[in-house]
Amino acid sequence: MAGDDPMVPVDVLGVRQLGDQEVVVLLLDARSGLVVPIAIGPREATAIASAQAGVVPPRPMTHDLLRDVLRATGVVLESTEVVALRDGVFFAELALSNGERVDSRASDAIALAVRTGAPVLCAAEVVARAGVEVVDDAGAREVERFRSFLDGVEPEDFGP
């Protein structure tokens, strides 16, 4: 699915609950000052937030299992790439050290990248189409407030 669109590195700011139902993961393209919000489910939010917080579950969760399977087979996740946005759906791929690319939901790919330390990249076109500016003082304060929120967030804060 990867095309000729240039990829840009993004920082995973973390997850945030908007309103009563919607949960998003926020990806920051520091060069453009744009944040790409991707709607995700509560389980994926918990997977991302717990990994960012360094929480180690007593038994491996699905993303931990996938990380461990990759490690056991000697394959490294080189990068997670958000490659497209079609009809409101973000498409991602896992770029593996054996040259293979695996189609993935963006939320699962990000959860795996956070666990492995792999870089997260986003197609420049996706950033341009879905990104929201945070270059003003209010936006910068919001990003800082969100980073402070992440310091105290617990996986349980996102429900079951």
TrEMBL record:
Organism, per UniProt? Luteimicrobium album
Family matches, as InterPro entries:
BFN_sf, Bi_nuclease_dom
Name under which the protein is recorded: BFN domain-containing protein
Q: Where is the BFN domain?
A: 7-134
